[in-house]
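[Q] Does anyone have a clean structure-token version of this?
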Amino acid sequence: MPKYSFRVDVEPQYLPEQSMPGQSVYSFAYTITVTNTGEVPAQLISRHWIIVDAQGDTEEVKGLGVVGQQPLLKSGESFQYSSGCRLRTPSGTMQGSYFCVAEDGERFDVEIPLFVLDDGSHRVLH
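[A] Here you go.
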């Protein structure tokens, strides 16, 4: 088991009731579960997101914590939260990283793997 390691699981969801496709507003939610898979307790300090829509427009979001919190996770503990974003296109991607500090002072980054935001309108039905 590594000393410093978090796993990030993401479940994105399209929100049709909060979207206005005629006005190029597409709303998405995502639920993220962050699990400390390392040996040392560590705190999630900040986030850095890169959001790209289907036209290639990129937005970067940086900030302290997640949903107003900076959770301290012991080995094996998880923290789950939901948030969201709006795009001007029916699909896009998000990826990024969390900056964490372990109880022993070690600093490390955790990659948030790329995930797809999609309203489902472009899928081919077989």
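[Q] Thanks! Anything notable?
[A] The mean pLDDT is 95.
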